[in-house]
Specification:
GO molecular function: D-tyrosyl-tRNA(Tyr) deacylase activity; Gly-tRNA(Ala) deacylase activity; tRNA binding
Number of strands: 6
Protein name: D-aminoacyl-tRNA deacylase
Keywords: Cytoplasm, Hydrolase, RNA-binding, tRNA-binding
Order of helices and strands: EEEHEHEE
Number of domains: 1
EC number: 3.1.1.96
Subcellular location: Cytoplasm
Helix content: 10-25%
CATH superfamily: D-tyrosyl-tRNA(Tyr) deacylase
Length: 161
Amino acid sequence: MKAILQRVLSASVTVDKEVVSSIGKGLLVFAAVAPGDTEKEAESLASKVLKMKLWDDEAGARWKKNVQDINGEVLCVSQFTLLAKTSKGNKPDFHGAMGGEEANGLYHHFFEKVQEGYMTDRVKNGKFQAMMEVALVNDGPVTLELVAGPKEGPNTKPNRT
């Protein structure tokens, strides 16, 4: 599994002109499921999301607090395009992303583990397989890539564009 974490002051997801989720200060998490990923990867990624230290402490020391420490919120958004292969031609190849119901189930397992690891009401979700409008006010900006899974393989090697 792969995720892009963005530290935000606010973020929201709109589907069909209706806001389905919104958060204040916290994390926007774009997450993608690859073929071969299991619940183990989903759980590992959920733990990393919640433990990543992205905020300063009260004394100004950098990178000391995680989203739970600041009582922030988390907005998870499924985004299979994170696993696109872009090394050949100008059209992205999405064969590196798991499809259908299997991806839906594993993504939702990830989302539920983020909720269980924190507080259910502080963790929001986009809408799986929907055309979403994602709005955010990036804080910093701070943007990180997280990967949970095998150390080597087609879905964990960096894209060369």
